[in-house]
Amino acid sequence: MLSVDDAAIVERDPALPGLGILLDPEAFVAGMRPRWDVDASAEIFYLRYKPHTSCLAGYRVRLAGVDTLVTARAHRLDTAAKFAGGASGGGQMAFQPYALKHQAIVATLFPHDRRLPELIRLADENSRRELWQRLFPTRREWWTGELQLLRYKPERRLVGRLMAGGQPVAVVKFYGAGDYQHVCSGTKRLRSGATLCIPHRIAKSNRCQAAAFEWLAGCPLDESMTHGEFSPEDMQRVGAALGELHAQRNERAKRLTPAAESRAILEAAVGLDWLCPEFGNRAQDLARKIVDEIQRMPRHTTAVHGDFHPGQVLLQDESVALVDLDAASRGDPAADLGNFLAHLNRAVFPGVPPSQRAGDLGEALLRGYPDPSVHDRLDVWTAAGLMRLAPHAFRSRAADWKNQTTQILDQVEEVLTDRKYSKADTHRRVVPAGLAESEASPKVEDCYGVAADPQMPFVRNALDPTEVCRRLAPLAVRLPGAKFPIGLRAIRVTRYKPQRRGMVEYELAGDGGFVTIIGKARAKGLDRRTHRLVESLRRAGFDESATDCICVPRPLGTVPAWEMWFQEKVAGVVATPLLAGPDGPRLAGRIAEAIHKLHKTGVPTHRTHTMADEMRILSERLGELARARPAWSSRLERIVGACARLAASAPETGRCGIHRDFYPDQVLVSGERLYLLDLDLYCQGDPALDIGNFRAHLMEQALRTLGHPAAFCEAERSLTDRYLELSGGRRWQAVDVYTTLALARHIFISTRFPERSPLTGQLLELCELRLASVGRAG
User: Fold this and answer.
1) How far is CA 513 from the centre of its chain?
2) Contacts 24+ apart (CB under 8 A), 23-31
C-alpha cells in the first residue's frame, strides 16, 4: 500500500498512470502475476524517477521460488508503445518484455536490459562461455566461471564478481554506451603508491562495453564502520591514500567542471522541491548558495576519484585500496573529501551519536591527508555532497523518506552556517540571509567593460551597489517567498554586445534566502515589448502552475532610467548538453511540445518575419562572408541562389506567434519543467521556421562536437516527429526548407567564433550536398 507521501506524488503526476504501481510493491506483484509466477514479497533495490516523464524501478522478487530481478519502467501513455515491442514476440519468451498497456508499464526479467544488451549472455552457459572467452582469451580456466552480482543499476551499469574454481578472480563491469568511454580514459593512467592501491584493469571489450579489474582482498570500510571494527588510525591511512591519488595528474581523464557539478546539485534540489512541495524553494535556495560558492572557487585539475565515500575503500594489511573508479576525473580534490564527509554525516555508528563519531573520523581523515590547503573549501563541498545525497532516502524507499530528506537539508544549512573547516581569511563565506549591504561588500564584476560603453551610459548606475539596492528591492519582493530587509551580494555582467545590449545578474540576500534577478538593457531603449510579452504568456498558461510544466521565467518589472527590464533567474540546465545524452530523444519530444504550445497560444504581436526576410538576412550574411573570403565567393553565390529557389518552392503553412531564434540554449530544463528563454525576437511567422532552426543547430552541434551532422539524429527525429504529430503533419516540407536555410546561415556564424572556424568548410560541403540532392546546387 502506498504511503501518504508516495500517494501525494502519484496524485501530482497523472502523466504517469503506472507510477502508483511501481512505488507500491504489493501492487507491483499483483500486476506481474498474469505473466510471471511471482511470490507475494517484493523489494525495490533501485529507483530513478523523472516527473511527468518516466519512472524506472528495479525489484527483487521470488519467481517460482527463485530470487530474481525485475526491471520495470512507467512511461507516459503516448510513449510506452515505443518500448513495448517484442512483448509478445518469439525468442526466449521468459526474457521478452511484459507490458501493462493501460498503465503504460513495461517490465523485463534480468538479465534482459535494453541498454546493457550483453547481459543477456549471462543467462545461457554457452553464451556466457563465449563472453568470458572474448574478455579473457588467455585465461582458459576462467571460461566456465560464474558471475556473482555485486551492484546493478538497470540500464546503466552492472558490477559482478567472477568466480572460477570457487575463488574470486576478477571484478567485471558492464556499462551503458555513455559511460564506457569515460571509464576507459579515466582510469588508464592511475597508479598505486606507498599507501594507495589501485585495481589494475586486466581486460576490456569495446564491443561488449565491458571491463574487468583485478580482484582485491580487503575489508570494506563501510562494513567496518557499521560494526565499529576499525580505528582513527585506519581513517588516517585512508586520507594518506587519497592524497596519493590527488597527487597524480591523470591528464587524459575528463575534467569535472564547476558547471557540471553545479548542474548536478541544482537538478537534485529541483527534484526535491517536486517530491516535497512543502519545502517551498528551500532546497533550491540552499543549492544556489552552494553553486555560487563553487563558481567562485579557483579551478583545480588534479586527479580525483569522483564518487569518493566509505563504500569505495578497502582496508588492507599494509595499504588502502580505492575501488570503483568509474567516475575518475580531473577536478577539485576538496570535492572528494567533502563527499566523504557528507557520507560520514549520514552514517550510523553503533552506540555513538552520528555527529560526534562523524566529527572524530573526519578529523582523522584530514590528519592523514597531506594538503591542508583544501580545508577552506571543505564546507562547501560537504554541503554539495549532502545535497546530492538528499534524494537517496526517496530512491532507497525509506519509510520515513520525507523526514530523512528534511534532516539532510537541515545538515546542509548547518554546514553552510557553522563553517567548521573553513577559515575566515582563506575563503569567501556564504553571506548570511538578511545581511545588510554595508556588511556584505557586494562584488561587482564587469569583465566586458560595459560601464564605459558610450551608447549605454545608463548601465553605470545599474552597476552601482547603492543604486541597485534602492531600485531592485520593490522588484525582488514579487518573487515567491522573498522576505526583507534585502541585501545585495553580487553584480555580474554576463552578456554584452558592444553598443547594442547587455545582461546583468543581481544576487540578492533576504530573510527568505538568496535570489538572483536578471536585467536586460538595450542601447536603443527599454524593451517593454518583450516584458509585456512574457507577462502575457504567463497569464496564458506559461507559469509554474501549468500542468504541462512548460513555462517562461517570471517577469519582475522595469527600471526605465537604466533602459532595463527584469525577470527571475530560474535554476536549471540549458538543453544543449542534455540533448546529446541518452535522454536526448525524450527531451527533444518535450521541447517540440513546448514550442507547439507557444505557437498555438496566439499572444498577438505587430512584428512579422517572412520567407523574404529570411532570404534577405541569409544573402546579407553570406555576401559579407564572400567579400571577406574571395576564394569561397563562387561557392557562396551558388548556395545563395539555390537557397532562393528552394525558398520559393516552400509551401505557405500559415502564420502564428513564433520564437524566431529557437535553438537548444533557449530551453532551460528545471526538473520536470521546461522554460522557454530569450523571446526578444518573438513575431508573426511560419512555425516551421522554429523547428527548422532548432534542427539546424542540432546538426551543427553534432558536426562540431562529434564530427558528423547526423550524430544527434534520434533527438532531431523525435523533435520533428512529435511536432508534426501535434501540428497535424502538414509542415514537413517547410521544416526541411528552413533547416537548410538555417544551416546555410551557420556557414557565416562559424566564422564569427575562432573555435568554430575549422567547421566552415564542412558546413559549406553539407549545404552543397543538401541542395545538390534536389538539383539546386553544384
Assistant:
1) 24
2) 23/55, 23/57, 23/397, 25/59, 26/1, 27/2, 28/57, 28/59, 28/72, 29/61, 31/100, 31/103, 31/105
| Chain position carrying cell 577539485 | 332
**Alpha-carbon distance 444 to 465, whole Å?**
8
Q: Across-strand partners of 212? A: 172, 203
Q: For residues 205 and 136, give the distance between their C-alpha atoms in angstroms, rounded to a whole number.
A: 10
- 426 versus 277: the higher-pLDDT residue is 277
Q: Whose grid coordinates read 517530491? A: 275
Could you tell me what percentage of the chain is helix, strand and coil, using 3-state DSSP and rounding each to the nearest 5?
Answer: 45, 20, 35
DSSP assignments along 73-121, one per residue: EEE-TTTHHHH-TTTT-SSSGGGS-EEEGGGTEEEEETT--TT-GGGGG
User: The pTM is what?
Assistant: 0.58
Q: 17: which strand partners?
A: none
Q: Is 206 helix (H, G, I), strand (E, B) or coil?
A: coil
- Residues 6 or more apart in contact with residue 731 via CB below 8 angstroms: 653, 687, 688, 691, 723, 724
pLDDT-based confidence at residue 693 (cuts at 50, 70, 90): very high
Distances from the Cα of 548 to the Cαs of 12, 589, 593, in angstroms? Answer: 12, 13, 9
**What is the C-alpha to C-alpha distance for residues 368 and 233, in angstroms, rounded to an integer?**
8
For residue range 118-157, list pLDDT tens digits in order.
999 999 999 999 999 999 999 999 999 999 999 999 999 9
SS (H, E, C) 380-405: HHHHHHHHHHCCHHHHCCCCCHHHHH
Cα dist. 105→26, 163, 323, 537, 572 in Å? 15, 35, 36, 35, 29
C-alpha cell, 409: 537539508
* Helical H segments across 315-447, by residue range: 333-346, 354-368, 378-389, 392-395, 401-418, 437-440
Q: Which of 533, 503, 496 is nearest to 518 (CA)?
A: 503
C-alpha to C-alpha distance for 55 and 58, rounded to whole angstroms:
10
Cα 430 to Cα 413: distance, rounded to the nearest angstrom: 11
All residues at 6 or more sequence positions from 403 whose CB lies less than 8 Å from its CB, including other chains: none
Q: Does residue 485 have a cis bond before it (omega within 30 degrees)? A: yes
Grid coordinates of 257 = 567542471
DSSP state of 671: T
Tell me the pLDDT tens digit for each residue of 437-495.
434 478 899 998 898 888 888 898 899 988 887 778 767 767 765 554 567 889 999 99
* Strand, helix or coil for residue 376: helix
The CA-CA-CA angle for residues 686, 690, 692, to 5°, reads 100
User: What does the block give as the cell for 762?
Assistant: 564542412
DSSP assignment of 598-645, as one string? HHHH----S-B--HHHHHHHHHHHHHHHHHH-GGGHHHHHHHHHHHHH
Identify the bridge partners of residue 320 per DSSP, sorted by sequence position.
196, 315
**What's the maximum distance between 2 C-alpha atoms anywhere in the chain?**
82
Of the candidates 458, 466, 460, 461, the one whose C-alpha atom is nearest the C-alpha of residue 442 is: 466
**Amino acid identity for residue 514 in this structure:** F
